[in-house]
Amino acid sequence: MSSTGRLYRALLRLYPASVRQMFGVEMLELVEARAIRERESGRPWATVRANWFVLRDSIRAIPQAYRDSFTEFWQNRHNPGRPPRMSIRDRIMLVLQDIRHALRSMRRTPGFTVIAVLTIALGVGANTAIFSVVNSVLLRPLPYNEPDGLVTIWTARSERAQARGSMSQPDLQDIEAQVNSIQYASGYQSYGLTLTGLGDAEVIDGAIVTDGLFRVFRVAPHLGRDIRPEDNVPEGHRVVVVGHAFWQERLGGDRDVLGSTLNVEGAAHEIVGVAPPGFDYPDDAQVWVPLYLNTEDCGRDCHLLRAVGRLTPGTALGTVRSEAMALAGRLEETYPEENYNKTFIILSLEETVVGDVRTGLLVLLGAVGMVLLIACANVANLLLARASSRSGEIAMRSALGASRGRIMQQLLLEALVLASLGGAAGLALAHAGLGTLLRFAPASLPRAESVAIDGTVLMFTLAAVVAIALLFGLVPALRLAGVSSAGILSRSERGGTSAAARDLSRSSLLVAEVALSLMLLFGAGLLLRSFSQLTKVDLGFEKERVLTFRLSLPEAVYEDPDRAVQFFTSMEQRVSGIPGIETVGSVFGSPLGTASARTSLNFQDRPAPIPGQEEVVLARVSTPGYHEALDIPLIRGRLFDHGDINGTPRAVLISQSMADRFYPDQNPLGKRFTVDMGWGYGAEDPWTVVGVVGDVRSVRLISEPVPEVYVPHAQMGGGYLEVVVRTAPGVTNVLPAIRKEVKAVDPNVPLRGIRTMEATLDRAVGPTRFYVLLLVVFACVAVALAAIGLYGVVAYLVSRRTREIGIRMALGANRGDVFRLVLAQGLRPVIIGILVGVGGAYAGSRLLQSLLYNVEPTDLGTIVGVTALLLVVIVLAILLPAGRASRIPPMSALRVD
Amino acid sequence: MTDAATGGGKPLTSSVFYILFALADADRHGLGIAADVEERTDGDVQLGPGTLYNAIKKMLADGLIQVARKRPAPEDDDPRRRYYSITRSGRRALEQEAHRLDRVLAAARDKQVLRESRPA
Are residues A528 and A569 in the same domain? Predict the structure, then answer.
């Protein structure tokens, strides 16, 4: 460099940093060129001339440079929205260029790209699938007009305010009339109604309703009229409203259908209306008939109705609740017996529909979120590892004038490209997997048919992609863009100042991965234990080889209880004659079924109870074969036989827990009580206990057995029973024969709800199995990802420390020492992660409480078990690279540059 | 944006004018600009490094010139050098300045300040 050049280098320091950094090199080049020209011109004083030239220039230009910088600064400050220096087009070009660059560098490292994209695809796919379920089931509004104003109304007993019970019609009428914030209310029973006269007898989803159901839902009939108050009287003219789909498909969409008759439950009904298209409340109903409740037989203490209501516009749920509470108090004063301790529960319809599955779905969403975080941590780790090999490239770019922001932008864009590829693959994965997911979904999952990947889901996926790109792109980007070009260019790949910091972020990522995996494993473990508890529940009956179906005799034809008894007796006789069928029995209220009845008891040998405080037990009505068909053990006395018929002394069977509760130290046989069930034959006469049978899980699988009484069908009557058929081992497909025999007794009585007892049980454990299955899958994915991540990091650390290991071994360390060194280093984040994870698991597991059965959310055995499992997997992941490290020959390690 | 960039009509400073002039026919690096200006003015105008780059910095900021995307053929290229090219608004500003000078020249001839015969 010339002396003028040296002078100018000093002068350059006087310039503002912005000018010096941007143009210093070029300015110096100009000066050198000038100096050379002066020298070559041959004129005297060449150096002096050159020096004078740069001095004169500097005297003029340096103050000018500061003036310019100041003006620029001032303008920026006072005009923050100053026009961009780059045109939009240039910016887009730049982004496109960065994307091309990103794709190019991804193509150069296909292994990394494939692993990263698959990891993200797994995380995004699982999240998209679960979110699409959450979106359709929980987030999308119900498909009714102004769904926010719809509520369901229930009866509850004050002391057990959680249990929702059906409503009585007088109570419901009072609520509609006296609770101001309920504009309309309607009661219904949802039923499979038997239709005859349109070909074979068939059962169609329908409902028996009080008037005003359409009004509650703010819909008008497509044709004709709604059900009116005058329709709801006993012995009135029988009318029916049919669904739009039913009208189209079964009645030909004929507008003249009004006034024609339809045979419902054995009686002719006049069609007076057609529901609007799409309306099928409740439970896909297509036929609505008026409710004929005789308030003398079924009054205020007869709770048979489910109820929906429409809030007065602008009312909050809280207002309705307090008004209903006040009404309950007034009613209890007026009707101290019937309304003793009675209160009302008001829930939004949405809560009623999805309330049971909300917790489970949100837990699943949280779990997949964790899987995504773990996937992010893994990709971040991969990017960090790649970052060290790319620091040279970055340093070169920044030396060539790329600003820190520019490099950040490029790195984040790379992360975004990676995340987008993974997201697209994940979306495809979700699309493909959604069907499978729904096949495993429990039947009780509401609105499952509407689950799909829609716009909302796509937005969710897009947001997830951007979020994870930021998440796993930011750490390496900050790390890389932050290092000075000189720092990286001057040092070799090994060691260096930022390595420690990089190791720290690597370790934090591992800690997070291990902690999250442990939390997931714990959740999965708890549910798994809960599930195994559920399957181990002693049902009290034998579930194998049992087929059940319901028979409902049309009331109009079977008004006489003798006829109903005759029907079931001859039906059972015929069915039991079918080859391959061992026993047949019928019951009202089969285990885990939907039908149930309660009765209060009045013991003959005890003082009469205070009205409203009678002992209430579950009541079952059964035929003689029932207990044998389900293999419910007889503990004392005898079962029903064909001699227990109307006219003979009334016999009753009680369950073990009923015997324990009411006759703890005595022989219950021969004890007498009355029940208040007013079926066919009436029930005024006292019943005598003839036997004690085993307890059955009859209400819900997870509820402890409750006291129950069984009365013989032939002494109680009733036209609605479930038939329980036990087949011989190895016998299949007896259904056609059964159908034929039932048809032979009465062709107008179809079989409904045909299923095996195992299927019924399957339904009961379905939700738990669904959550268990998914959580276990997610937990396995999480653990696998964490193990892969750990393996990768430890392997990387080993490769970086090969030289150090070589030196240690050269200095006398043996293989065991090296092994322990690597193991210890790998295990440190694992141990911290496990501690954090245990804390998190305990804190979070309370959310699972409502999904658990017979397992405490803080179950010690589970936490120990899953921690051990995680440790084993992770130690294996570390052992591989650690073992490799200990086998490195010292000389080759030392030769590594 | 400054008046120069929007063609607001304010006279350009002489260094800005000369730099635009130098870039009007070709992309050049800093040294090339200085050499072109000096040659074109028979050595009357010699842009010093500070003056030149102060102007370049300001012109870049004002959008009159930009760092050229195309680079010369590799054998002529020096990767350390940045080449500058005139932008559309730079060309407009140059045109306006030329028109202004043309008007000044015409006025000067009218007022007999400038004699026609003088060779350019």
Answer: no
Does B21 fall in a domain? Answer: yes
Q: Please give the residue of chain B at the shortest CA–CA distance from A55.
A: B48
Residues A312 and A201 in one domain: yes
Nearest to B21 by CA among B36, B8, B6: B36
Give chain B's contact residues with A (Cβ, < 8 Å): 1, 29-31, 34, 46, 48-54, 56-58, 60-61, 63, 80-82
Cα(A172)–Cα(A308) distance, integer angstroms: 10
Task: Tell me: do A381 and A527 sit in the same domain.
Answer: yes
Cβ neighbours of residue A441 closer than 8 Å, sequence gap 6 or more: A133, A448, A770
Residue in B46, B53, B54 closest to A26 by CB:
B53
The series of mean pLDDT values per 10 residues for chain A, 897 residues long, is: 86 84 86 88 85 89 85 68 62 81 82 85 89 84 84 78 76 86 86 76 83 86 84 78 87 83 83 88 85 73 84 86 86 81 85 80 87 86 75 74 75 88 91 85 78 87 89 75 50 46 73 88 87 84 88 82 90 91 90 76 80 78 90 91 87 91 88 81 82 85 83 87 90 86 87 85 81 85 83 76 78 80 81 90 83 83 89 84 74 63
* Contact assessment for residue A225 and residue A290, using Cβ atoms and an 8 Å cutoff: no
Asked whether the beta carbons of residue A19 and residue B53 sit closer than 8 angstroms, the reply is yes
- Is A897 at the interface with chain B, CB within 8 A? no
Q: Residue A218: phi, psi to the nearest 5?
A: 55, 45
Cα gap A878→B37, rounded to integer Å: 68
Contact B57 A23 (CB under 8 A): yes
ipTM of the shown complex: 0.84
Contacts of B98 (CB under 8 A, 6+ apart): none
For residues A623 and A712, is the Cβ–Cβ distance under 8 A? yes
Query: Which DSSP state fits A619?
Result: E
Question: In terms of pTM, does the model score above 0.80?
Answer: no
Q: Looking at the structure, do residues A494 and A382 belong to the same domain, yes or no?
A: yes
Beta strand A267-274 with B83-86: parallel, antiparallel or unpaired?
A: unpaired
Q: Which domain holds residue A669?
A: 558-747
Alpha helical stretches, state H, B1-120: 3-6, 14-23, 30-40, 49-62, 88-110
- The CATH number of residue B14's host domain is 1.10.10.10
Beta partners for A306? A188
Q: Could you tell me if A70 and A199 lie in one domain?
A: no
Number of domains in chain A: 4
Asked if A598 and A685 sit in the same domain, the reply is yes
Q: Is A785 exposed, middle or buried (0-12, 13-18, 19+ CB in 10 A)?
A: buried
- What is d(CA A184, CA A215) in angstroms, rounded to the nearest whole number? 7
DSSP A144: S
